[in-house]
Specification:
Alpha-D-Glucose-1,6-Bisphosphate, Chain A, domain 3; TATA-Binding Protein; 3 domains; 6-stranded mixed sheet; 16 helices; 21 strands; about 35% helix; about 20% strand
Length: about 475
């Protein structure tokens, strides 16, 4: 019986476990990726396969490994749930041709996903994803696979530990010893996911104290709606950081490729501000130079920093399938997106929530400042910026009808600010007179519409968002 067509969204394919996401679907996706790799890379290199802590992820990963092995690839299967950035770096460390990662990242507990990475460790570009989709079969009746036990016995599939190579890479990128000896109290919330244990391991041996919560495997993700490092999912972590008088809260999403930050007062620092802080850290504190790559859904503070430090800023569509290729093309210093995912030069063109968190800690050490003081320093330099976002289920109308309504709205004012233009490269981004913006975008991974804004006027945030909802037709 033919199955549902599989389409790769913003970052891979995701579905509801036991509904459209099942072993049949995983084998079909793996077959498509195998055909793509045979055409573009051959099968003389290894393929890394990793997974997260969601329900049955290790079993779905084994199914993917079996199909790859049957296509002649040597498969390196991680020895446990592994952060996405560690999987991506393993491609470089092992000289592999790519990777499959079984994870649904920040999605609800009901979901799982299938991510693919190229030989650079980054997301496969849109053209490559189209090639993969084109050869995914309608069913799995003709898909070969080598049973896991046979693959392990023959050596075609090998269980390996990706941690040592990644830790060595981290130590090449940042001197951890000053952080270990800083005496900070660092609260960490890995959101029941793959980031658990990494900050305690990396920062052990000094006066710094690392306290973790939500660090066991629990595929239901209690105390949060989903493992996404934004409110309200982070509220328990913020309260815990205040209770323990922590200097900072670091939050990783379910697969640890994103980071969220809370300050010493238990106040969330939104992901646009974190992106600007990381760029400022690299440019001002570390005195590095290089292009910045950002998605159109993230902060205009980067454009201001780009002008100040005389570095180019490139804007892409939403998703690392756009950011990663652009980072490689221009040898970017940093790349990132609104969701809290940031990638760095001399590493892999992939979001790394662990390294990003370490960079925040290093910035605190070098500038002798708490997180709220870092924000004050940034805003003194470039002015205050305010951001928020509303996610809403798609209304019953067709997406085309909704998009037509957005295009036909032609608002002159949004949130009381004059509209200066409309960018439809990826969604509908209305420029505003204060240099801010409103973006309306349909999610590439879930049946929701996102309405985002950034403005230099704090009292305009909610009016802008409410006008955005009206433009969509939700209010």
């Amino acid at each position: 019986m033919a199955s549902t067509a599989i389409k790769f969204g913003t970052d891979g394919w995701r579905g509801r476990i036991a509904d459209d996401y099942n072993f049949n679907a995983v084998r079909r996706c793996t077959y498509g990726f195998s055909q793509y790799l045979l055409e573009t890379e051959g099968n003389d290199k290894s393929i890394v396969v990793g997974y997260d802590k969601r329900f049955a992820s290790e079993d779905f990963a084994a199914a993917a490994a079996e199909v790859l092995a049957a296509h002649g690839f040597k498969v390196l299967l991680t020895n446990g749930p592994t952060p996405t950035p560690v999987i991506s770096y393993s491609i470089i460390a092992e000289g592999a041709a790519g990777a499959i990662n079984i994870t649904a990242s920040h999605n609800p507990a009901s979901d799982n996903g299938f991510k693919v990475r190229d030989r650079h460790g980054g997301a496969v570009a849109p053209q490559g994803l189209n090639q993969i989709e084109a050869v995914i079969p309608k069913d799995n009746t003709q898909i070969p696979y080598l049973p896991l036990k046979d693959g392990l016995a023959s050596g075609q599939i090998k269980i390996f530990d990706p941690a040592p190579a990644y830790i060595s890479q981290i130590e090449n990128l940042i001197d951890l010893e000053p952080i270990r000896q800083s005496g900070f109290t660092v609260m960490v919330d890995p959101m029941w996911g793959n980031g658990a244990g990494w900050f305690p391991k990396l920062l052990a041996g000094g006066t710094t104290k690392v306290i973790e919560i939500h660090n066991q495997r629990n595929p239901l993700f209690p105390e949060m709606l989903r493992p996404e490092p934004i409110p309200p999912n982070i509220n328990v972590g913020l309260r815990a950081s205040v209770e323990h008088s922590a200097d900072v809260l670091l939050i990783n999403d379910g697969d640890a490729d994103r980071v969220g930050v809370g300050d010493e007062n238990g106040v969330f620092i939104d992901q646009l501000r974190v992106f600007a802080l990381l760029a400022y850290y690299l440019l001002e504190v570390r005195k590095e130079r290089g292009p910045i790559v950002k998605t159109l859904s993230t902060t205009s503070m980067l454009n201001i920093l780009g002008k100040m430090y005389d570095v180019p800023v490139y804007e892409t569509g939403v998703g690392f399938k756009y950011v990663a290729p652009k980072m490689l093309e221009v040898d970017a210093l940093i790349g990132g997106e609104e969701s809290g995912g940031y990638a760095f030069r001399n590493h892999v063109p992939e979001r790394d929530g662990i390294l990003a968190g370490l960079y925040i800690l290093d910035m605190m050490v070098r500038l002798k400042a708490k997180p709220s003081e870092l924000i004050s320093r940034l805003f003194k330099l470039i002015g205050a910026h305010y951001y928020d976002r509303i996610d809403s289920p798609l209304p019953p109308q067709s997406r085309k009808e909704l998009e037509d309504g957005i295009l036909n709205a032609k608002p002159k004012l949004i949130g009381g600010l004059k509209v200066t233009g409309l960018n439809i490269v990826d969604g509908y981004k209305f420029g505003l007179e204060d240099g801010g913006w409103l973006l309306i975008r349909f999610s590439g991974t879930e049946p929701i519409v996102r309405v985002y804004c950034e403005t230099t006027k704090k009292d305009r945030v909610q009016p802008i968002l409410q006008d955005g909802l009206r433009i969509v037709g939700i209010k």
